[in-house]
Amino acid sequence: MVKVLFVCLGNICRSPMAEAIMRDLIEKEDLSKNISVDSAGTGSWHIGEPPHKGTLKKLEEYDVNTKGLIARQLSSKDFDEYDYIVGMDESNIRNISKITGQSNDPKIIRLLDLTDAKKDVPDPYYTGDFQETYDLISEGCQVLLERIKVNM
Ligand code: 4NP
Question: Is the CB of residue 85 below 6 angstroms from any atom belonging to ligand 1?
Answer without folding.
Answer: no
